[in-house]
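Before relying on records like the one below, remember that each one covers exactly one chain. Contacts with other chains, cofactors or solvent are not represented anywhere in the record.
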Amino acid sequence: MTPMSKPAFWRSTPPAVFPPVMGLFGVALGWRRAAEAFGTSTAIADLVLGATVMIFLLLFAAYMAKFLARPEVVLEDLRVLPGRAGLAAASLSVMLFAAAMVPYSERLASFLLTVGVLWHMVLAGLMSYVLAKGPAAQRKTTPVWHLSYVGFVVAPLSAVPLGMIPLAMGLFISTIGIAVVIYAISLSQLAQRDPPPPLRPLLAIHLAPLSLFGTIAASVELTGMAICFALLATLVLAIMLYKARYLTAAGFSPLWGAFTFPLAAYGGMMLALASVAGFFGFIGGAVLVAATLITIYIAAKVLQMFVKGSLAKGTNAAIA
């Protein structure tokens, strides 16, 4: 490549493309839960899932090409917040892909689950290495830590229906402890100072772990625990809605991808509790419709930025 030539498009594939894709996977799984709760067709779930899988595979191939061209890009992407969130969302998307494949092929679902968990373990290790080697200011706890260290709780969404109950419960219990530590540190930091407006959308990530804990608890019939998590998640969602202008004060950015998967996870949790009380299902259905519209809008905007080349520059993505 000559000094005046531009790098190939895929060489700057930004990890920031993956959070809204993770949101789309969550929406697809949410519509499947809605079909189960209300006894309706899975057509919407299948449509969203098919489109999401195609988008994810294309983006995954582009990032893998970038990685193979220069493996160091992973460490460079992990040095910035959009990169950390995006790479974590990519591996978590594989776990969600596994959950989506359970009804079609348990063998494929098991393979994807294994790949997703191992990949996420490697990323969590690399992120810890980058944080340890980086400046002290970079080691400040952020909501993205939920994705990197608590994100393993996505695995039980496929592990439970696949009959891997010990794995599911092990991840469920261990990630609750990690989440409690992150929540405690985050609350302490918020009490001391506000995050800058461009980073505030990341606060929405705090909704995701509680919603996933509630979903997993419901799936293993720990109903009382599931309802407790639902109440806590509802409190967080209420605060988010009340502080919507605060969270979006900086205007649209790729970090808005952080709004997508937590909303989908909350809707899915409520639908998982529909068998306990009908109003849970109606709340879940309403949130799922809103999550679908919001996620499609954000995903379209982020993918448009990616195609135009502004996403890589705006998120300081590494170039192979």
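Residues 10-187+200-312 form a domain with the Glycosyltransferase fold (CATH 1.50.10.150).
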